[in-house]
Design goal:
The chain is 57% helix and 0% strand. It has 120 residues and is mainly alpha-helical.
Length: 120
């Protein structure tokens, strides 16, 4: 299943098209590609990446998992795709005022308050 997902899954297919668009100088969103490439099917990869990144941020583990952190920044438009090749630098890059966009990590993966604190 893992091999099939890596070589032919919809996340790989859409990621390939997304990267081609970036390389051609015509970046697009995953939402647009879901409609065009997947005929409306939904991707799980971006959602999963955001959920994993939220856990890493809450625990202060971004530096321990630089590949996950960089991929999350790339898929959310904070870094260009080429940064995956230099993922250690990508994980420590200042993306608060990124040249790619004006969004920060905090905007993509907001810190959540514990349920007990939110109830007070």
């Amino acid at each position: 299943d893992l091999v099939a997902t890596c070589y032919g899954g919809r996340n790989r297919l859409v990621a390939q098209e997304w990267t081609k668009a970036w390389q051609a100088g015509k970046p697009t969103s995953f939402e647009v590609l879901e409609k065009e490439v997947l005929a409306g099917q939904k991707l799980q990869g971006v959602l999963t990446s955001n959920e994993v990144q939220e856990i890493l941020r809450l625990r202060g583990w971004e530096g321990r998992f630089p590949l996950f952190t960089t991929i999350n920044r790339v898929v959310n438009g904070l870094l260009p795709p080429a940064w995956v090749l230099n993922y250690e630098a990508g994980a420590s890059a200042d993306v608060g005022s990124s040249a790619v966009g004006s969004v920060s990590d905090e905007d993509i993966v907001p810190r959540k308050r514990p349920a007990a604190a939110a109830a007070k």
